[in-house]
Each structure stands twice: as structure tokens, then as C-alpha cells.
Design a protein that fits this description.
By secondary structure, the chain is mainly alpha-helical. 62% of the residues lie in helices and 11% in strands. Helix 2 crosses helix 5 and helix 3 packs across helix 4. The longest helix is centred in the first third of the chain and has 23 residues.
Length: 152
């Protein structure tokens, strides 16, 4: 049985979940600045898709949804919008007619490369003063939080 004595109230500023939320919000703003500086109109979700496809082109739309948004209807809308912008193209999966494979177009590759050019400098700024060991620890903690939340 959980009691208040076992789990004393935590000030919001000290709560790990709040700090994660605040960092995510600040990272979203940082991303917008980086996109403006690069001269591309790009959402984080679109960047995630472009980046993933730049490393593994021809993924199934469902795989992108699982990896990026974990929301298939939103992923379908996102991919459709990116297709309208000429960044990706979809083809039927030759092994499963229910699936669509998503590929970068030359324009999608160009947008990816323009934005990607600023990522190393931005990453250096964001991670300044954080050791590789600390970054690895944060990654492990966040992975565990995701695991705990996904398993319900």
C-alpha cells in the first residue's frame, strides 16, 4: 500500500517528469531555431522521418509510425503532407499489398542534407558540459522510462 509518508510530495521543479517535459519543450524551440537558420520549413516529426529514411530508405509506413510517432493515422497524414511537398514517395509493398514503402526523393534528400549540416554544431551546443558517460546514463534512464510506460 502506498502512503503519503512513503511518497512525499515533490516540488514540480524537482520532479523528473517535469524536467523531461521542460527539456523537450526547450528542444522543440531549439529545433525551430535551427530549421529557420537552415532556411527550411520542417517539423521535428518530418525531420525524424527524413533522417530515418536517409539511413534506411524504403521503410514501411507502419515502421515509420512505430519509430517516430507510434500513431499510424498521424503518420499517414504526415507522410501524405511530405509527399505533397515532394520529399518522399510511397509505393506498394511488393510482398504485402496492405503496406506502403516510403522513399526519399531527391528533394527530400536535399532538405535532409541542408538541415543535417547544422546538426553537429547544434548537438555540441545542446550537450555542452555533458560527458559521454552522463549522456549514456540519461539515454538508459529515458529508455527505461519508455519501457515502463509502454508496458503499462
Amino acid at each position: 500500500m502506498n502512503t503519503a509518508a512513503q511518497h512525499p510530495a515533490v516540488r514540480i521543479d524537482d520532479a523528473l517528469a517535469y524536467r523531461i517535459y521542460r527539456s523537450a519543450r526547450l528542444l522543440r524551440g531549439h529545433f525551430r531555431e535551427l530549421a529557420l537558420k537552415a532556411g527550411v520549413e520542417l517539423s521535428q516529426e518530418q525531420w525524424f522521418v527524413l533522417n530515418r529514411l536517409s539511413h534506411e530508405d524504403g521503410l514501411a509506413q507502419g515502421q515509420l509510425g512505430d519509430a517516430v510517432l507510434d500513431d499510424r493515422p498521424n503518420m499517414a497524414r504526415l507522410i501524405a503532407a511530405m509527399e505533397q511537398r515532394g520529399w518522399v514517395t510511397r509505393t506498394d509493398d511488393p510482398t504485402d499489398a496492405r503496406k506502403h514503402l516510403v522513399y526519399l526523393t531527391p528533394e527530400g534528400r536535399r532538405v535532409h542534407d541542408i538541415f543535417d549540416a547544422g546538426v553537429p554544431q547544434a548537438r555540441t551546443r545542446v550537450l555542452a558540459g555533458i560527458s559521454e558517460e552522463d549522456a549514456a546514463l540519461v539515454a538508459r534512464v529515458l529508455s527505461r522510462i519508455e519501457f515502463n510506460l509502454e508496458k503499462g
